[in-house]
Amino acid sequence: MGVFLAPMAGVTDLPFRKLAREYGADLVVSEMISTQALVFKNQRTLNMLTIDPQERPVAIQLFGHKPEVMAEGARIAVEQCQPEMIDLNFGCPTPKIVKNGDGAALLRTPELLTRVADAVVRAVEIPVTAKIRLGWDEGSINCVEIAQRLQDVGVHWITIHARTRSQFYSGKANWDWIRKVKTNVRIPVVGNGDVFSIEDAQAMFEYTDCDHIAIGRGAQGNPWIFSQIKAWQERGERISPPSYSERIALALRHLRLKIDYDGVDKGIKEMRPHLAWYLKGIPHSAKVRGKLNTAESYEEVEKLLQTIL
């Protein structure tokens, strides 16, 4: 029963993946990467393929809707960084992705989705996985059909975010459908959606009978969730939540990793949401969160965070 870091755009970059692995995630998945941009040799996109040895095993998640482009993008990714897996994004709900026919838009065209997956499976020798949603909306839930199609073309496992595209991240994840997919396919199923604690993880495993779980928003500002769940799985032990000082110390360490990776300006700018997540629930942190949005150096961030303790 693996516990994975789910892919999240703008979140699961290399520094965060390293922390997730350090804190017990069995597998980490990259931000989604455009195969069109890879084929066009876009340097910023190629840089997203950087993998640190400390974060392995890692899956590179790709998106696109043209089978031949997806296949070529997968080959480039394998050649560039030798990931342990390629993951296909058939679930991103954002308008700028679906308007191009990518992400969750492919749930509306199962035949094309199948051809995309088949092309990638044939193009690379490493395992190919896929992440889907329940369907486009409540009236067109087709995750069982999609899962069976993916199984038939050789996809290694399927991750199911138990919401429709129209839900985005609202409402409650419907785990019933994870259980239904699990009973209708032979390949492993990874459950995803609304796991924010040990109790949630335990409930998902027991209710859906899924093989693994993937944690997305539950890991934001909280990589401890992986070590907590693993301690419960392996030893029946319940680890205490981190203290406020531990949370701030890790936020600063995360910031240092981010600056080392992306430079000061980009690193501080892109860490702002992460810093807000680390501070969530800490008393008297609201004013500090506001000031962090204008901080321009590591020292300034450090000074602001230390005022909370």
Nutshell version of this structure?
The protein has 309 residues and is α/β, with parallel strands linked by helices. Helices cover 47% and strands 12% of the residues.
Structural description of this entry:
This protein is α/β, with parallel strands linked by helices and 309 residues long. It folds into two domains: 233 residues, Alpha-Beta Barrel (TIM Barrel); 63 residues, Non-ribosomal Peptide Synthetase Peptidyl Carrier Protein, Chain A (Orthogonal Bundle). It is 47% helix and 12% strand. It is built from 14 helices and nine strands. The protein has an eight-stranded parallel β-barrel with strand order 1-2-4-5-6-7-8-9, surrounded by seven helices. β7, α8 and β8 form a beta-alpha-beta unit. α1 crosses α11 and α4 runs parallel beside α6. The longest helix has 19 residues. The radius of gyration is 19 Å and the shape is globular. The relative contact order is 0.11. The mean pLDDT is 96.
Tags for this model:
309 residues; single chain; Non-ribosomal Peptide Synthetase Peptidyl Carrier Protein, Chain A; globular; alpha/beta; 14 helices; eight-stranded parallel barrel; TIM Barrel
